[in-house]
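Entry 12.
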Amino acid sequence: MLKGKYPVIAAALFGVAVPLFAQSQAPAAQARKQSVSPPARKLNSFEMDEVKQIRDRILANKSNPAGTKAYSTTIPNTTVSYQMVAIPAGDFTMGSQTKKDEQPPHKVTVPAFWMQAHEVTWDEYRLFMFAKQAGEIAHKDDLVDGVSRPTRPYVEMSFGMGINGFPAISMTQHAANKYAEWLSAKTGEFYRLPTEAEWEYACRAGSTTPYYFGSDASQLKDYAWYSANSGGKYQKIETKKPNAWGLFDMLGNVMEWTLDQYEPYKSGDQADPWVKPTQPYPIAVRGGSWNDAAGMLTCAARVASDPSWKQQDPQLPKSVWYETDAQWLGFRLIRPATVPSAEEMYRYWNNGVEHDEQ
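Predicted 3D structure (tokens):
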């Protein structure tokens, strides 16, 4: 869809071979069975055993916050922290009449969850990539260490002491999924990427206008980094105004991965939908970036991932870990209020098509 739209940069690669709130599966999981069927690929028994252990750790975690209050947490054995914003359960009209791929507008019901107040920063992500080099306090955790990690990417990594840093960029959806698995093992709290519906619901924060602050694009400069004010590069997180629910940079700065296959919307009411990927491209990306005009930064705007985002990779055969050529692409995680089954957790972190080539 967007092939050739964005500037191509020097390739960044990941060179490592690929080897989580309540108690059981959420009731909404039944509704998800009505969406696109998951890939037929068999579960990897070794990785599935690890997922089961991570889930056991999550269920045994007694420090999980009660209710749906916002909270701050520090990644164990580090000084790096992040904030989780409580997103209440509710319904909203997803999509718009503005663009074809945003139609038809349809009612969606979403359960409660927490979402990171800002995009995942390099300060957080580098712990996943290379813990020893990042200054992580020495420790031994076979479960955490068992989650495969990428090698150092060939892109600028602008660190900034926790929440004051820059968003991590250029990772594949697979790398984002694996970071969520690693963070879940590390903290004993279940994390994953948001679905498209969860992302748009959180972005709108109860609004029904194109932007979460209204319809006046001239106000966008106060809420987002985009082509008119970014200076042609990404910026520090939390330097613009948040939406009504306290989420920063939902629009602009860097686009954000979701879990969903990018497909036309279906009409009719939907409950907690998740369009499970059946092919590697396209995946739905949301929020617009520092490189986009105001029209691409609406709450309903959608972008389809494209193979052209991964132009260069010296690995033969190509590694699923190597980063994209997209310096305007990042992600943030959510923490559902209910811990799903181990099988569903596995599918969140391994979508089944990450090894496929196009």
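Annotation: The chain has one domain: 29-349. The first strand starts at residue 71 and ends at 74.
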